[in-house]
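[audit] Reproducing an earlier prediction to check determinism. Same input, same settings, fresh worker. If the C-alpha coordinates differ from the archived copy the diff job will pick it up downstream; this log only records the rerun itself.
[audit] input (167 residues):
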Amino acid sequence: MPLHPLRDALYAKVREQVDLARTLMERLPDEGFEWTPPGGGWSTARLLGHLLDCLAGMCAALYAAHPDALGHFAALRGLPVNHGCGREEARARMDQYAASIAEGFAVLADADLARPIPTVFVPAGEKLLTLILGNLEHLINHKHELFARLKLMGVAVGTRDLYRFRE
Protein backbone atom coordinates (compact mmCIF):
# COMPACT_ATOMS: atom_id res chain seq x y z
CA MET A 1 0.00 0.00 0.00
CA PRO A 2 1.49 3.37 -0.99
CA LEU A 3 2.15 5.93 1.68
CA HIS A 4 0.38 9.27 1.52
CA PRO A 5 2.06 11.42 4.17
CA LEU A 6 0.54 14.73 3.01
CA ARG A 7 -2.97 13.33 2.84
CA ASP A 8 -2.54 11.67 6.22
CA ALA A 9 -1.22 14.85 7.88
CA LEU A 10 -4.04 16.93 6.40
CA TYR A 11 -6.66 14.39 7.47
CA ALA A 12 -5.23 14.30 11.00
CA LYS A 13 -5.65 18.09 11.26
CA VAL A 14 -9.18 17.99 9.84
CA ARG A 15 -10.15 15.19 12.23
CA GLU A 16 -8.62 17.09 15.16
CA GLN A 17 -10.68 20.19 14.37
CA VAL A 18 -13.90 18.19 13.94
CA ASP A 19 -13.25 16.51 17.30
CA LEU A 20 -12.57 19.85 19.01
CA ALA A 21 -15.75 21.38 17.56
CA ARG A 22 -17.78 18.37 18.70
CA THR A 23 -16.26 18.55 22.19
CA LEU A 24 -17.16 22.24 22.44
CA MET A 25 -20.72 21.44 21.34
CA GLU A 26 -20.93 18.83 24.13
CA ARG A 27 -20.00 21.54 26.66
CA LEU A 28 -23.08 23.62 25.80
CA PRO A 29 -25.50 23.93 28.70
CA ASP A 30 -29.00 22.72 27.88
CA GLU A 31 -30.33 26.29 28.00
CA GLY A 32 -27.54 27.53 25.70
CA PHE A 33 -29.00 26.39 22.39
CA GLU A 34 -31.38 29.32 22.00
CA TRP A 35 -28.85 31.80 23.37
CA THR A 36 -27.80 34.65 21.07
CA PRO A 37 -24.81 36.90 21.65
CA PRO A 38 -25.25 40.44 22.92
CA GLY A 39 -26.12 42.63 19.97
CA GLY A 40 -27.90 39.83 18.11
CA GLY A 41 -26.92 37.19 15.63
CA TRP A 42 -27.68 33.53 15.17
CA SER A 43 -28.88 31.41 18.02
CA THR A 44 -26.33 28.83 19.14
CA ALA A 45 -28.61 26.13 17.67
CA ARG A 46 -28.34 27.89 14.30
CA LEU A 47 -24.55 28.11 14.69
CA LEU A 48 -24.50 24.34 15.17
CA GLY A 49 -26.48 23.98 11.95
CA HIS A 50 -23.87 26.14 10.25
CA LEU A 51 -21.07 23.94 11.61
CA LEU A 52 -22.86 21.10 9.83
CA ASP A 53 -22.66 23.18 6.65
CA CYS A 54 -18.89 23.51 7.15
CA LEU A 55 -18.57 19.73 7.38
CA ALA A 56 -20.88 19.21 4.40
CA GLY A 57 -18.59 21.49 2.37
CA MET A 58 -15.63 19.26 3.18
CA CYS A 59 -17.62 16.22 2.04
CA ALA A 60 -18.59 18.02 -1.18
CA ALA A 61 -14.94 18.72 -2.01
CA LEU A 62 -13.98 15.09 -1.38
CA TYR A 63 -16.92 13.89 -3.48
CA ALA A 64 -15.89 16.17 -6.34
CA ALA A 65 -12.41 14.63 -6.29
CA HIS A 66 -13.65 11.03 -6.50
CA PRO A 67 -17.32 10.94 -7.53
CA ASP A 68 -17.12 7.31 -8.66
CA ALA A 69 -15.75 5.98 -5.36
CA LEU A 70 -17.85 8.37 -3.26
CA GLY A 71 -21.07 8.45 -5.28
CA HIS A 72 -23.14 7.78 -2.18
CA PHE A 73 -21.95 11.15 -0.80
CA ALA A 74 -24.52 12.74 -3.12
CA ALA A 75 -27.15 11.75 -0.53
CA LEU A 76 -25.45 14.08 1.97
CA ARG A 77 -26.59 17.04 -0.12
CA GLY A 78 -30.18 16.36 0.90
CA LEU A 79 -29.46 16.72 4.62
CA PRO A 80 -30.45 20.00 6.28
CA VAL A 81 -27.72 22.49 7.18
CA ASN A 82 -27.81 26.12 8.34
CA HIS A 83 -30.79 25.44 10.57
CA GLY A 84 -31.30 25.39 14.30
CA CYS A 85 -30.53 21.99 15.75
CA GLY A 86 -30.21 20.50 19.19
CA ARG A 87 -27.48 18.45 20.79
CA GLU A 88 -28.68 15.04 19.60
CA GLU A 89 -29.04 16.07 15.96
CA ALA A 90 -25.74 17.98 15.98
CA ARG A 91 -23.95 15.02 17.59
CA ALA A 92 -25.37 12.47 15.16
CA ARG A 93 -24.75 14.62 12.09
CA MET A 94 -21.22 15.61 13.15
CA ASP A 95 -20.47 11.91 13.58
CA GLN A 96 -22.01 11.14 10.18
CA TYR A 97 -19.96 13.83 8.45
CA ALA A 98 -16.80 12.79 10.34
CA ALA A 99 -17.24 9.21 9.10
CA SER A 100 -17.81 10.44 5.54
CA ILE A 101 -14.74 12.70 5.73
CA ALA A 102 -12.65 9.73 6.91
CA GLU A 103 -13.98 7.66 4.02
CA GLY A 104 -13.30 10.46 1.55
CA PHE A 105 -9.72 10.94 2.70
CA ALA A 106 -9.13 7.18 2.53
CA VAL A 107 -9.56 7.23 -1.26
CA LEU A 108 -7.21 10.18 -1.78
CA ALA A 109 -3.57 10.03 -2.74
CA ASP A 110 -1.10 12.83 -2.15
CA ALA A 111 -1.18 13.63 -5.88
CA ASP A 112 -4.95 14.29 -5.70
CA LEU A 113 -4.32 17.33 -3.51
CA ALA A 114 -2.76 19.18 -6.46
CA ARG A 115 -5.55 18.23 -8.88
CA PRO A 116 -7.87 21.07 -9.99
CA ILE A 117 -11.53 20.54 -9.10
CA PRO A 118 -14.13 22.65 -10.95
CA THR A 119 -16.32 24.75 -8.64
CA VAL A 120 -19.24 27.10 -9.05
CA PHE A 121 -16.90 30.01 -8.37
CA VAL A 122 -13.93 28.76 -10.40
CA PRO A 123 -15.18 26.60 -13.29
CA ALA A 124 -11.59 26.00 -14.47
CA GLY A 125 -10.90 24.44 -11.09
CA GLU A 126 -9.21 25.03 -7.76
CA LYS A 127 -6.65 22.65 -6.35
CA LEU A 128 -8.29 20.10 -4.07
CA LEU A 129 -5.90 21.16 -1.30
CA THR A 130 -7.16 24.75 -1.59
CA LEU A 131 -10.78 23.56 -1.34
CA ILE A 132 -10.07 21.38 1.68
CA LEU A 133 -8.10 24.15 3.41
CA GLY A 134 -10.90 26.64 2.71
CA ASN A 135 -13.45 24.31 4.29
CA LEU A 136 -11.10 23.67 7.22
CA GLU A 137 -10.68 27.42 7.74
CA HIS A 138 -14.47 27.82 7.67
CA LEU A 139 -14.84 25.10 10.32
CA ILE A 140 -12.10 26.56 12.53
CA ASN A 141 -13.59 30.07 12.39
CA HIS A 142 -17.02 28.85 13.50
CA LYS A 143 -15.48 26.50 16.08
CA HIS A 144 -13.88 29.60 17.59
CA GLU A 145 -17.25 31.37 17.46
CA LEU A 146 -18.74 28.48 19.48
CA PHE A 147 -15.83 28.75 21.92
CA ALA A 148 -16.46 32.50 22.38
CA ARG A 149 -20.16 31.87 22.97
CA LEU A 150 -19.36 29.30 25.64
CA LYS A 151 -17.15 31.85 27.39
CA LEU A 152 -19.93 34.44 27.23
CA MET A 153 -22.34 31.87 28.70
CA GLY A 154 -19.98 31.39 31.63
CA VAL A 155 -18.72 27.93 30.66
CA ALA A 156 -15.11 27.39 31.77
CA VAL A 157 -13.28 26.88 28.48
CA GLY A 158 -9.67 27.63 27.68
CA THR A 159 -6.93 27.33 25.12
CA ARG A 160 -6.85 23.53 25.34
CA ASP A 161 -10.46 23.50 24.11
CA LEU A 162 -9.34 25.22 20.91
CA TYR A 163 -6.05 23.45 20.21
CA ARG A 164 -4.65 19.98 20.59
CA PHE A 165 -1.17 20.40 22.03
CA ARG A 166 1.57 18.01 20.97
CA GLU A 167 3.37 16.81 24.08
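[audit] rerun output stored. Observation attached for the diff report: The CA atoms of residues 77 and 119 lie 15 Å apart.
[audit] end
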